């Protein structure tokens, strides 16, 4: 626990206290000056690089060192500290945010985040001036969630810009932002966003409780928050949706969900989340309902394909050859002649190779990453077939599986399915098709039991809610989706209009 050293009315003792606490940092600067031609002294404390030097020079130092300010300081030097302090706050300093600091611990915390501390002789405590210098990047299209049709706008690392992006989606007084601080040693600002007249108050309160219970030294990215507030940390499935798209966040808020935004990261979290949400894209609502339904069904198919195709191949080749059509079986057997490995080991060699190339492509520089991934896959696959290590049919199976996994819109769901794929393969190698079915039943039972902030993970399938199927595996016309998801228990279940 930090020792709290309160400020006194003695200017020199307060300044020495500040020097002892933070002056040992090389980037902390203390500037002493006088008001005009008087002997009244003052000091400012700021961090180089975090504080805006132009704002400090032109708005603080240039203003305070004028003779007109010195005259007013002399007029208020009768010992009335509150009047003098009010004068600086209300008539001298043209800074939008000014806080009063009563101890050196609070001063250190704010100064090390970009605030400038002002210490004035004859006044108690210190003033904290918001001179935070924020360096931002341009608002670009999200790299991880590209669309053919839709806004080309993504979140940035600046929290204030992200909240402004949500506000720009339309005038709405119901959109509320609640501010929290997370991190025990390095504190960061966190925002909970929700629609006041739509969101379930119990859900909002649950999110607030979980955020306040976060006890960790530092929260560098929203992924930390996601892991610390999820319902079941042992589950391989994500229980919060991460997104860089403001349009996706505002749409979720309109449904009655809650968004979590953290300073320093462009990824926001949406809770609660369901399995079907992770297979949906904002583009589903920007196109007409018939092509959107087809594409959504295709995503569900590719999700199950990426999970089960290698396991089904292993089970049929190793245990259930009689279930394969005769001509296809003869073709597969001819391609497997000379392959020294069983189907499981053959599949593991190719799957591990694909995963290595996928990871290498992410870590390589952007100009050469895609090229290396494509060329590496072609060369390794062709070389493995020519060497007789794997069969051509296995290369096809692995390629179809990899392409199917790329069609999943959510990156973290794709990682989960890739991990589970290996477990299904081992189950198929031990028990054949029965192992695949048994593993699928176990996986389904886990998904049925899993919840995200009290909402069943596979709803509206289980529990069955026919009304919510209008936006589940299919996407019905917008005029038919008049009601919000029943699972969220919103204050206003019907959409306006």
From TrEMBL:
Q: Which residues cross the membrane?
A: 258-279, 300-319, 368-387, 393-415, 422-443
Pfam families given in the database record: GerA
User: Which GO cellular component terms, listed alphabetically, does the Swiss-Prot or TrEMBL entry include?
Assistant: membrane
The reply on keyword Repressor is no
InterPro entries referenced in this protein's UniProt entry, alphabetically: Spore_Ger (IPR004995), UPF0353/GerABKA_families (IPR050768)
Q: Give an example GO biological process.
A: spore germination
Q: Which keywords does the record carry? A: Membrane, Transmembrane, Transmembrane helix
Q: What protein family does this chain belong to?
A: Belongs to the GerABKA family.
Protein name, UniProt field: Putative spore germination protein
Gene that this polypeptide is encoded by: yndD
């Amino acid at each position: 626990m930090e020792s709290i050293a309160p400020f006194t009315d003695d200017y020199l003792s307060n300044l020495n206290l500040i020097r002892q606490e933070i002056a040992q940092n090389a980037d902390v600067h203390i500037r002493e000056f006088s008001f005009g031609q008087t002997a009244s002294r003052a000091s400012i404390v700021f961090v180089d690089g975090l504080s805006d030097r132009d704002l400090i020079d032109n708005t603080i130092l240039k203003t305070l060192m004028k003779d007109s300010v010195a005259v007013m300081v002399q007029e208020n030097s009768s010992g009335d500290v509150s009047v003098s302090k009010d004068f600086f706050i209300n008539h001298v300093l043209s800074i939008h945010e000014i806080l009063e600091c009563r101890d050196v611990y609070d001063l250190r915390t704010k100064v090390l985040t970009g605030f400038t501390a002002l210490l004035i002789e004859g006044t108690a405590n210190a003033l904290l001036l918001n001179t935070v210098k924020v360096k931002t990047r341009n608002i670009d299209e999200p790299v991880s969630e590209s669309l053919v049709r839709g806004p080309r706008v993504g979140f940035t690392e600046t929290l204030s810009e992200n909240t402004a992006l949500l506000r720009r989606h339309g005038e709405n007084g119901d959109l509320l932002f609640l501010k929290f601080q997370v991190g025990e040693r390095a504190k960061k600002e966190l925002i909970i966003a929700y629609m006041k007249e739509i969101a379930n108050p119990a859900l909002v309160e649950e999110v607030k409780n979980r955020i306040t219970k976060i006890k960790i030294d530092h929260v560098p990215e929203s992924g930390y928050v996601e892991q610390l507030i999820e319902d079941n940390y042992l589950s391989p499935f994500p229980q919060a949706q991460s997104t860089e798209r403001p349009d996706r966040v505002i749409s979720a808020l309109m449904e009655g969900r809650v968004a979590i935004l953290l300073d320093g990261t462009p990824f926001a979290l949406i809770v609660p989340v369901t399995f079907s949400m992770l297979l949906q894209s904002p583009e589903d609502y920007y196109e007409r309902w018939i092509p959107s339904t087809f594409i959504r069904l295709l995503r569900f198919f590719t999700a199950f394909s990426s999970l089960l195709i290698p396991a089904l191949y292993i089970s049929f080749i190793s245990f259930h050859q009689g279930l394969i059509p005769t001509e296809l079986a003869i073709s597969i057997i001819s391609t497997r002649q000379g392959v020294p490995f069983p189907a499981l080991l053959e599949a593991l060699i190719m799957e591990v190779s694909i995963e290595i190339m996928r990871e290498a492509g992410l870590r390589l520089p952007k100009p050469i990453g895609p090229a290396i991934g494509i060329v590496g896959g072609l060369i390794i696959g062709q070389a493995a077939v020519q060497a007789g290590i794997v069969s051509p049919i296995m290369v096809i199976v692995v390629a179809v599986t990899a392409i199917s996994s790329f069609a999943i819109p959510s990156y973290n769901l794709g990682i989960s399915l890739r991990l589970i794929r290996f477990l299904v393969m081992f189950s198929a190698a031990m028990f054949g098709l029965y192992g695949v079915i048994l593993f699928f039943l176990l996986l389904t039972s886990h998904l049925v039991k899993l919840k995200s902030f009290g909402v069943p993970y596979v709803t509206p399938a289980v529990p069955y809610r026919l009304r919510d199927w209008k936006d589940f595996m299919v996407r019905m016309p917008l005029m038919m989706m008049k009601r919000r998801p029943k699972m969220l228990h919103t204050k206003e279940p019907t959409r306006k209009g």
